[in-house]
Amino acid sequence: MSIGRVVVEADGGSRGNPGPAGYGAVVFDAAHETVLAERWESLGVATNNVAEYRGLIAGLSAAAELGASSVDVRMDSKLVIEQMSGRWKVKHPDMIPLQRSASDLARQFEQVEYTWISRDQNSHADRLANRAMDGVVDAGLEAEPEPRAKQATRPAPGWMETQGAPTRMLLLRHAQTALSVERRYSGRGNPSLTDFGRAQADGVAKRLAGQEEITAVVSSPLDRARQTAAAAAAALGLSVTVVDGLTETDFGEWEGLTFREAADRDPELHRRWLSDTSVRPPSGESFDDVRERMVRVREDLTVSYGGATILVVTHVTPIKTLIQLALDAGPALLYRLHLDLASLSIADFYPDGGSSVRLVNDTSHL
Questions:
Q1: pTM above 0.90?
Q2: Of 133, 155, 189, at which residue does a domain stop?
Q3: Catalytic residue, candidates 9, 65, 174, 315
Q4: Which of 9, 41, 52, 248 is an active site residue?
Q5: 187 and 322: one domain?
Q6: Is 174 a catalytic residue?
Q7: Cα dihedral sign, 38-143-320-157
Q8: Nearest to 106 by CA among 89, 84, 128
Q9: For labelling alongside 55, which of 25, 176, 237, 274 has CA 20 to 30 A away?
Q10: pLDDT per position as a tens digit, 267-288
Q11: What counts of helices (H) and strands (E) characterise the chain?
Q12: 33 lies in which domain range?
């Protein structure tokens, strides 16, 4: 149900540029009197511009969840306002995927207007961004907004409040390859399964066989995922649909290297990459890039298979990212969650924006 026009104010900051960064976003009603939603998150180490764009994306996402039909975006970032208005070109490689994601969100509304405001006019979002940078809240979690007249909050519902049938995703990591045995970075390279990996895939297939609620099998385009998916699909009597967006992170020039070899080759860059999701391997893809891709994949799958149970066969980073999205968790999850080869996790995504995680890293079938 549409609520008409809303005002989104967003801000982002970095103490050091790059340095500890965070964003804040607030959604007001059209009269700018009632707070409808707030968002803030710590981003680890990032630049001011990355944080500003992340704030805009969070604000537009919140407006979409509220059912707004048109949005008045107000920010004190001249760069973001001019780029989103189309008057400035987007040249920096870190900004291109963020601007694209913000534009994709903006197209959901009937109208979006972008207005530059001074910092003192953006104090509410600035306060939230500083709260994120101070680490006052756990990254990615919502909290109660500060008291205001006629206040109303509408965060994405938790599993007890969700409405409608969820799209249930059984998230299956591919089975063993030679590179995984040697613990080497394996992204866009295309190794096949080992004999043991094929046995792992058969073990998963036996577990899933006969589960009539699974109505589709989708897979990364890479061979190791497609071979794992093929075994499960055969047991289920289904075909495999390849989804390009489910491919693994592009590790660039680190592809095929061990952790130690990559660290020795690019010590400072590798160190930053281990804690900053915006950092890319040489000629590769950052975890922020993967997140933007997986947001689109999640949306496509929930539209194509709404209310169904599907088997999603992919790789460690896409699965971690889908779990991160389902939990509305911060970037630390990517560095702390372990997923075994051929492990199964389950996440539900509801049509009202709610989500829940039902299972993580189950290997009982192996």
A1: no
A2: 133
A3: 174
A4: 248
A5: yes
A6: yes
A7: negative
A8: 84
A9: 274
A10: 999 999 998 999 999 999 999 9
A11: 12, 11
A12: 5-133
